Amino acid sequence: MSKYWIKQWAKLRQDEVIQIPKDYVVHSDFTTYVSEKEIKASFAQIQSLYINLYGDIAKYPEEFGMPMHEKEQYRVFSQQWRDVSVATYRPFILLYHLMICGDIENQGVLVSLNKYKNIPLHKKGGEKLFLYNPVKNVHILFKQLENYGFYFQGLKNYKLSTNDIYITYPDDFNILLVLKLMAEKARNINRIEDFLCCHFRLFQDDMQTAGYGYGADDTADRVKTESEKNFIYKMDEALMAKGMFRKPYGGVECHGLAYYNSQKSMDSKAPYSFRMVSRSFDIEHNVSETEKMLLLLRIRNVSKCLEYINGCPESVKEIFRYGNEGCVNRPCDKGVGYEFEGKDYWRCGCCAPAFSFKPNLVDIPHYIKLVELGEKK
């Protein structure tokens, strides 16, 4: 484990790059100047660029001008911890800004310096998004990006001058063209995060439409194994069949979906009953895990579930066979204490439901029943 947060965050961002499926849709809006075959070939190379660049930041963060905050000095959820999580995106935020401020000219992209310097902050949900401008240490990033095949004219010692910027990618102009199409689409549909994780679904609808990311696919696309994807779709299907309401619910360290018993509960930000997340909240250890997805259950009263649990398979019983030390507020009204198989357990519930674990597909009916029985105190 590294002593610096930046190395951990960069590994996580590398892991968040979306896998490209064997087949995916490319809308005709993207094939005006380049064929679908060429788009897919270039996109595969772009994905490799993302993986390599995030990986190199993890190895050599100081060479990218990244903040070197030590884990021992700054705790999880501190402002420095959050700042580092955003800093990992800097090279791709820079590329995004350049692409949306430029026009295709000959075999490159001519970027208007005036447009670049006056990019407004994007907003999402009334809050400022992290696509700040100017990007910090931009001169370091320009220099580093040349190591990945980009060339920049109009700079002075890799810093902005009074000239417009002309970008080329001599090895393959289509790389620039596809990257620009991705940036334009992400801007049009306000899905900048999808540009930062190299999402293949940017291509599936026309340049003004986002027909994805509102249901189970938003989380399923972000896990790595078919078993995890299958669970997400099946669990979502079962909960929606019960008439539940869902919405995206994630954070800087994961993506997820939360499920509520009513529209009113969902709109009022009341506690959700179920939640699926693409990874554990423990960013220090879960990057190396093959399966990271977690299911969270809102069970407040285990005593109401005990009779049912006793008839469940071992995989369900195992959920209740461990606890944790809790938080500094223990005992508190959000934690869950219970006795099971002659032992006492305590589960902290301050930051999330007390029960979170890696689920099994065959146990979906049991998970739903447990929440039905124990959700209310």
How would you characterize this protein structure?
36% of the residues lie in helices and 13% in strands. It is of the alpha+beta class and 377 residues long. The protein has 14 helices and 13 strands. Strands 7-8-9-10-13 form a 5-stranded antiparallel sheet. A 4-stranded antiparallel sheet has the order 1-2-6-5. Residues 123-130 have low confidence and may be disordered.
Percent range for β-strand residues: 5-15%
Number of E strands = 13
Q: What is the share of helical residues?
A: 25-40%
SSE pattern: HHHHEEHEEHEEHHHHEEHEEHHEEEH
Q: Overall pLDDT, averaged?
A: 92
Low-confidence stretches: 123-130
> If helices are DSSP runs of H or I spanning 4 or more residues, what is the number of helices?
14
Gross morphology: elongated
Class by alpha and beta content: alpha+beta
Instruction: Summarize the main sheet.
Output: 5 strands, antiparallel
| Strand line-up in the sheet with most strands | 7-8-9-10-13
Give the N-to-C terminal Cα separation. 41 Å
Please tell me how large the radius of gyration is: 23 Å
Protein traits:
36% helix; 377 residues; 4-stranded antiparallel β-sheet; 14 helices; alpha+beta; 5-stranded antiparallel β-sheet
